[in-house]
Structures are given as C-alpha cells and as structure tokens.
Amino acid sequence: MLMQDILLGFAFFLVIEGLVYALAPSFLVAMAKLLPDMPEGAIRLTGLVSVALGVGLVWLMHG
C-alpha cells in the first residue's frame, strides 16, 4: 500500500510538472531567472513549507 501511494504521488508530480512545461513555458523561464536573485534562506524556507504542506495534505487524506 505504501509503495502504491508513493508511486501515485510521483505520478501526480509528473503530471503537474509536465503541465507547467506544456502550458506555461514562458512563466517557468521567468521564474527560473528569478532564482539566482533570491536569498538561499528564502528558497530553503519555500521548500520546507512545500514539504510540510504536502505531508499535511497526505496525512489528512490518508487519515
């Protein structure tokens, strides 16, 4: 069951990532150009918040 959930999550990640590349490539390029100007701490905090929200959503849906 856990492996199936992990694969399902990875599949959703690929779908969403693919949609961003397919539907909004110019937005993706603009965001990538902003990254070098962002402080490392802000990037790290954004990543940690994303992880926490993702774990929270999985917990809510699975709980």
UniProtKB/TrEMBL annotation:
Keyword terms, alphabetized? Membrane, Transmembrane, Transmembrane helix
What the entry lists under InterPro entries is as follows: DUF2065
Organism domain of life: Bacteria
Q: Where are the transmembrane segments?
A: 6-30, 42-61
In its UniProt entry, what is this protein called? DUF2065 domain-containing protein
Provenance organism: Martelella mediterranea
